[in-house]
Amino acid sequence: MAPLCVVSAVSRGHPDFPLGLADEPRECFCIGIPFFVVTMASQNAPGIATLKAHGYHLPVSPLISWTALVALILAPFGGFTVCIAAITAAICMGEEVHPDPKKRYMAAVAAGGFYLLAGLFGGSMGMLFTALPTPLIHTIAGLALLGTISGSLHRALNEERQRDAAIVTFLITASGLSLLGVGSAFWGLVGGAITHFILRYSRQKAA
Fold it and tell me: Which of 96, 157, 185, 195 satisfies CB 3.0 to 4.6 Å to 165 for a cystine?
C-alpha cells in the first residue's frame, strides 16, 4: 500500500466581525478575561522567568506590549495565541543549543521553520499521531523535555535562600492543580511567591 501524504490546502478566508458583540459585552468579558489570565499565568509569566533564568534580561513591559499588539492585529485572522511561549523558550535557550548565548536564536528560527512544515503537512502529522499509542506520545514528549526540566531545576535550586520557594512552585505546578478555571502554572507562581515572602519575613524578623 502506498504511503498516504495529506497536504493542507491553502484557501482565502474572510474574518467575520459580528456586531452583536457590542450589545453583549458580558460574552467578551467571560471569554476575554479568563483567556488573558490563562495566557499570562501559563505562558507569559513562565516565559519571562525562563528568559531571566538563562541570563536574558529584557524589558518586560515592551515585550508584553508588542506581543499583545501583534495578537490584537492577528486575532481576526485566527492568530490570537501570540505570547511568550514558556516551553518553547526553555527548549531554545538551553546550553545544548549553542555555547554562545548570542547565537541561540537559531534554535527559534529552526523551530519556526518546523512549525511551517507542520502547518503544511498538518493532515499527515495528525493522522500519524492519532495512529500512535498515547503512552508513546507522552514518552516522546517527556524525553524531549528531560534536559530542559533538569536544567531548570538545577538553576532554580542553585541559590539556597530561594530553594524552598522553588520547590513549592515546582510541586504545585507539577500537581496539575486547577482552581477557578486557572491552571497549575499560575498557582505554582502564587504558592512560590507566598513561600518566598514568608521565609524572607521570618529571616528578617530573626535577624
Answer: 195
